[in-house]
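Hi F.,

I've been meaning to write this up properly since the lab meeting, where we talked about keeping a consistent format for the predictions we share between groups. The idea is simple: the sequence comes first, exactly as it goes in, then the structure tokens exactly as they come out, then a line or two of notes. No screenshots and no reformatting. I'm using this chain as the first example so we have something concrete to point to.
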Amino acid sequence: MDMDALKRQAAARALEEVESGMRLGLGTGSTAKHFVDLLGEKVRAGVKIVGVPTSEATRAQAEACGVPLTTLDEIDRLDITIDGADEINPALDLIKGGGGALLREKIVASASARMIVIADDSKWVERLGRFPLPIEVIPFGLAATQRAMGEAFAKAGVSGQMLLRKSADGHVFVTDGGHWIIDVRLGEIEDPPRLAGLLSAIPGVVEHGLFIGLGSTAILAGAQGIRVIQRP
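Output, unedited:
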């Protein structure tokens, strides 16, 4: 079975958690895209929900699928966010941001009673860090921010080359919020919560891709079927 089919299986299982009347956070990325497609089918079948998208791409997709949308200015709390992840560890801490939407994804997840993470089982790791950690930064003072990031890495006992993310056309990738992303391949991160705190304290860092304590449930699809894992 190919990865895309596994992603759709995970998305379909997450859809079983959706009930009429819910307010949903709608994730960004290849797995979340399957969920929005399937949610559109459920809406057309009569289920009443409203969604908050985590990116302009998800907004456009949801609108095309007929999913009613709102904002966190209009409602202050969501029932569930359903989103993918680049890595998931046994504590259900995550690395996210491969698609560049980490800031809005974290805002929406933090405003939700639960976060369901959907993925193929290749995203499951014993320790975070194999996937490059995305860090969203303000362009102003970038060199100073990178120096502070290097100091934070040293304090957390990790290191790695910092690469400014580029788009396919070779230009600097710009997030929906107008920021840049630095990707850092750190290897295994011994203490993700400590590193998360150190990075959050840097003024030029808008947000980072370590999602600590936000994941409630992981739904992983693999060759042996679906695994549902609850946060310890």
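Notes:
The chain has a mean pLDDT of 97.
The CA atoms of residues 90 and 126 lie 6 Å apart.

If this format works for you, I'll send the rest the same way.

G.
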